[in-house]
Amino acid sequence: MMNCVFVSDVGRVRSVNEDCTWVDQLESGYTLAIVADGMGGHQAGDIASRMAVDTITEDLVSLPAGLSAEACGEELKKAILHANEAVFRKASEHVEYHSMGTTVVAGIFAGRDGVIAHIGDSRAYHFRQGQLVQLTDDHSLVNELLKNNQISAEEATVHPHRNVVTRALGTDEQVEVDLNRVSLEPGDILLLCSDGLSNYVTPEQMALTLGSEDLGLQGRADQLLQLALNAGGDDNISVALLEQHEDAGSGKKEWNS
């Protein structure tokens, strides 16, 4: 069983929260978590992220029990591609939504084994015994420049185009979904977040916070959010944490929206 929490905040600058976050255990026993960061303007980004999350959850809520993590991952990929079709179609049919799209990072778990799927620059991190590993590779202009050694890691953190993504859900008729397998041991934490966290909170700060067991899982999510706000809060901020329990039986779950 996993302990699951999430927080989302509009930040200190934006007037609308275009992030959409969803974490729950499905009736079939799988754990599903999604963070989507909408783009395309005041109303359109909010609609794109909500449509993506609604489509994915509706497609997966009736998954049959007993599937492998790999099979669950394939179903998650299909659901994300369906969401791409839905958002792209709505953007094509309504001029006011013409440029809308959203990032998405999602994880689905069958027990301790799971699959992470993502499009864009929302991220997944795996925390284990004080060590934080980024599981996703940003689909962003800055990451392409970084990989091609055109800018340094330090320059990437302050680059004026660090919010420009090279791949998004809903902006094109076809899109590619990246998949990564992950297995959580007891005590491990999976962190999903929008770039409102990762652009303002360092991996070192994330690891230190996730290792603060005295805070509890909800306290750690709240602390990560506060760190992003303290760093400026220039963007919407969303954080989802999934912690693997020692006990394989019925475990406690915390929720915060």
Commentary on this structure:
47% of the residues are buried. Strand 4 and strand 5 (113-119) form a beta hairpin. The longest helix is centred in the first third of the chain and has 25 residues, at 69-93. The strands form 2 sheets. Strands 1-10-9-6-7 form a 5-stranded antiparallel β-sheet. Helix 1 packs antiparallel against helix 2 (69-93) and helix 6 (203-210) packs antiparallel against helix 7 (216-230). It is of the alpha+beta class. The chain has helices spanning 44-60, 69-93, 141-147, 153-158, 195-198, 203-210, 216-230; strands at residues 2-9, 19-25, 31-39, 101-110, 113-119, 123-128, 131-134, 178-183, 189-193, 237-244. The chain has one domain: PPM-type phosphatase domain (Phosphatase 2c, domain 1), CATH 3.60.40. The two termini are 20 Å apart. InterPro entries: PP2C, PPM-type-like_dom_sf, PPM-type_phosphatase-like_dom. This is PPM-type phosphatase domain-containing protein. GO terms for molecular function: protein serine/threonine phosphatase activity. It comes from Paenibacillus barengoltzii G22.
SSE arrangement:
Layout: E1 2-9, E2 19-25, E3 31-39, H1 44-60, H2 69-93, E4 101-110, E5 113-119, E6 123-128, E7 131-134, H3 141-147, H4 153-158, E8 178-183, E9 189-193, H5 195-198, H6 203-210, H7 216-230, E10 237-244
Helix pairs in contact: 1-2, 6-7
